[in-house]
Amino acid sequence: MRRLENWDNNTWLSSEKYISKFHKFLRLKFKFNKDSKILDIGCGRANIISYLQKKYKFKNKATGIDIVKNKNIKKNILFKKFDAIDYLKRKEKFDLIIIKQTIHFFSKKRLISLLNLSKKSLNSRGKLLIFSLKTKNNKIPCYNDMKKKLIKSLKKDEVLLRMVKKNLYKTNETNFHFKVKISKQKYIKMIKNRYISCLLNVTNRQLNKGIDEIKLKLKNQIKFTDTLKCISFRK
Length: 235
Ligand SMILES: C[S@@+](CC[C@H](N)C(=O)[O-])C[C@H]1O[C@@H](n2cnc3c(N)ncnc32)[C@H](O)[C@@H]1O
Hints:
The protein is globular, with a radius of gyration of 18 Å. It has a single domain (12-234), classed as Rossmann fold (3-Layer(aba) Sandwich), CATH 3.40.50.150. The chain has seven helices and seven strands, in the order αβαββαβαβαβααβ. It is an alpha/beta fold. The longest helix has 25 residues, at 144-168. The chain binds S-adenosylmethionine. Residues 3-4, 7-8, 13, 41-44, 65-68, 83-84, 100-102, 105 line the site of S-adenosylmethionine.
């Protein structure tokens, strides 16, 4: 299976505006200070923790782990190419663990291990924040087959999120919203780059057919709200 490499490669998810809005949301959930120890599981290019590191100047550099080591990963953080579960078995402790848009890569069995190990890796009063795409009435622009694949994947997410809430037991749930404005041309480039996991396994022919559909169907300026569910757990 292809790996996800272009999720945050010059997309709204790596934009200053998005990261800054995401930070505002994070600070409602966690009181950052210089001594905070932060881990981002499935960090991609580490845009989020890089922003946090710059802002709060953590004494222990924020750590990001990912199974893919992309070319332009942010340099001001500690990046480790690791599988999440293998990394967490090293028993390091953190004050905040972020798992953003990553749980859908885990089987049910591995998700339970990920949750149990994450809980064990929290300092006392530490926070675990799990973010996942809103599963109902999601607004991500799609061509027809992409939509079918996305709905299937969101159905799987619903099962995983139920497991998360059952496992963590005492959780709090909120939503993060970001208003996306993107040109059709740029969005087509994102689709060509297979930015989202439901595009990883489609053939080039299917992808090109989908792009033709998007060209006809969508306006030159695409506007929609990207909504994430956030499940928050405190130790
Ligand atoms: C959709 S991206 C999200 C990236 C980033 N968290 C963000 O929201 O911008 C999911 C990331 O999880 C990573 N990933 C998938 N399985 C993983 C695993 N077992 N251990 C660590 N990272 C993993 C992927 O390589 C990818 O970079």
